Amino acid sequence: MQWFSVADRPIAKHFRVRHVQVKSKPMQPRSSASGAEALPYPTGSRRVLGQIETPALKVEERVYAAGLSVPRHSHDTSNFIYVIAGSHWVGHSRGGDTCAPRTVRFLPAGEPHEIYFPVGCRCLHIELRQPILELAAQDGRTICAPGELAQSSAAALGARLHREFRQRDDVAPLDIEATVLQLLLMGRQNSTARRSLPPSWLLRIREMLRDQENPRLTLAELSHCVGRHPVQISRQFHHHFGCTMSDYMRRVRIAQAQSLVAHRDLEIAEIALACGFFDQSHFTTAFRKLTGMPPRRYRSRIFGKP
Prior knowledge:
Number of domains: 2
CATH architecture of the largest domain: Sandwich
CATH topology of the largest domain: Jelly Rolls
Radius of gyration: 20 Å
Number of strands: 12
CATH superfamily of the largest domain: Jelly Rolls
Order of helices and strands: EEEEEEEEEEEHEHHHHHHHHH
Strand content: 25-35%
Structural class: alpha+beta
CATH class of the largest domain: Mainly Beta
């Protein structure tokens, strides 16, 4: 862990800012609010490039490696994510979004979500703490639903956050907090309501696809279980979750596999079968396609080996 400068400076009455610059610090995973086990990541798959922290929020610029799949988890705090470069896919209770550059999305505290990075991605991650949430609530209804902020002004506010973050001085937090308040108050404009919520039968389909006890469900069987036509299931799944059912299942399986690969006592063949693959060869091909490397090399990077 390499820290360049850490200083506590007063920025306003009752507030102090902790301004931290970090040089390519690998992130250490931690347990989520849901009590899930801490997720292992290979060396360099997630890095923190810089950080600003106040009593109201913590802002980090993060880089994620291509091929990283993060299984379903949640956080203790609400968060904004501004995509600086690259893209990623995130699934949550309202569906799924492909997060492109210059977009802002919101995740409330405790929201279960899963993430896949098909390409490398650089983001600004804003952790919202109770003081700023309470301050925003004094002015009106704040944003509460997960998903991308649809208002055109969201992109400009996200860029403003990044610009102020890069100033790295003791006055930057003033405008950062003001900008975050504007994003929070977009809740009055119902800014995430870009499409209707997934129907309950479609959410049931998603959970059935995640169920490792039924890894070979056919489209006809899914149709029979929820009483919907197969074409409707296929179209609605892609509409609400932004990917096909097959792609979703691959991401779920590889995310589970990335966690299991960290256990040295498990053979690759065992992991393949546990994650629903036909055999080790099939698993290795799918793993390499999504992560860019075979599982044995991924395991080596988790433990810091070249």
